[in-house]
């Protein structure tokens, strides 16, 4: 005779632990993001370089700008600080990942959130959101500070002028994109100095050197470099007139960033922490 086992419905049965919800993991990533001192230093430097240098260059060169000796539109100088603020966006995006690998914190992160796609998504949302807001605030501050000197010389640029609002919003979009681009590089390389160096080389150094390449193919290589393609959306009047239109360039830059993040995700899933 076979005994029948009856399970007591009131008995406490251990449950399998559910994966953390997106809101909980996002909040944890937010706390982690702001507890690192490099975050505040990077964002402070981003604002100082972006808004401070824009205001400074407008003050220093306002006479030449007003007389046309610079050969550029006055509006070009109202986003001048972007050239330097993008460096801090690259650095911050890299450090979000590589600092965890450097300290071994990534093991604790993956133990708490085993789904690596969720980890990458949380980091991307927090980093992109913060850099977007910081970029817009920096661009507005730089515009207000620099335009004050231009207006005193009668060459000010109004918010309603063509491309101004787009550039202020675009500054946030571009810096957020750069941060995500650097995030992908950080996951691929997992070494802070190497990832920052490669990111700066792709965005700044090679982007400028590409203009020296001969022929039509050289022009296209220059257009397709991440900094040249994406940066036009953050400029009221670009210094270089041979690139893509602002939104087309940003679309190209977005596609490049997605490719880098996709490769980073695949690598992130396959590698050990």
Automatic annotation (TrEMBL):
GO molecular function: ABC-type transporter activity
Gene Ontology CC: plasma membrane
Superkingdom of origin organism: Bacteria
Transmembrane segments: 41-62, 77-97, 124-144, 164-188, 195-213, 247-268
Keywords for this protein: Membrane, Transmembrane, Transmembrane helix
UniProt keyword Transmembrane, yes or no: yes
Protein name: ABC transporter permease
């Amino acid at each position: 005779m076979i005994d029948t086992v009856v399970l007591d419905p009131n008995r406490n049965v251990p449950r399998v632990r559910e994966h953390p919800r997106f809101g909980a993991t996002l909040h944890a990533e937010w706390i982690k993001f702001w507890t690192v001192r490099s975050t505040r230093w990077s964002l402070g430097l981003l604002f100082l370089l972006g808004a401070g240098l824009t205001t400074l260059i407008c003050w220093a060169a306002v006479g030449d700008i007003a007389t046309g000796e610079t050969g550029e539109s006055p509006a070009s100088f109202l986003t001048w600080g972007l050239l330097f603020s993008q460096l801090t966006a690259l650095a911050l995006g890299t450090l979000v990942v590589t600092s965890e690998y450097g300290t071994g914190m990534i093991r604790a992160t993956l133990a708490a959130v085993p789904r690596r796609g969720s980890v990458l998504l949380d980091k991307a949302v927090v980093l992109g959101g913060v850099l977007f807001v910081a970029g817009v605030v920096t661009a507005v501050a730089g515009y207000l500070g620099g335009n004050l000197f231009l207006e005193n010389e009668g060459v000010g640029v109004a918010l309603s002028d063509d491309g101004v609002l787009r550039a202020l919003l675009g500054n946030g979009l571009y810096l957020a994109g750069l941060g995500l681009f650097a995030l992908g590089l950080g996951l691929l390389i997992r070494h802070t100095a190497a990832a920052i160096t490669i990111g700066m080389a792709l965005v700044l150094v090679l982007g400028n050197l590409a203009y020296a390449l001969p022929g039509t193919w050289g022009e296209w290589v220059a257009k397709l470099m991440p900094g040249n393609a994406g940066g036009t959306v953050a400029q009221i009047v670009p210094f270089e007139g041979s690139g893509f239109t602002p939104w087309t360039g940003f679309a190209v830059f977005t596609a490049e960033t997605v490719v880098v993040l996709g490769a980073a995700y695949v690598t992130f899933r396959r590698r050990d922490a």
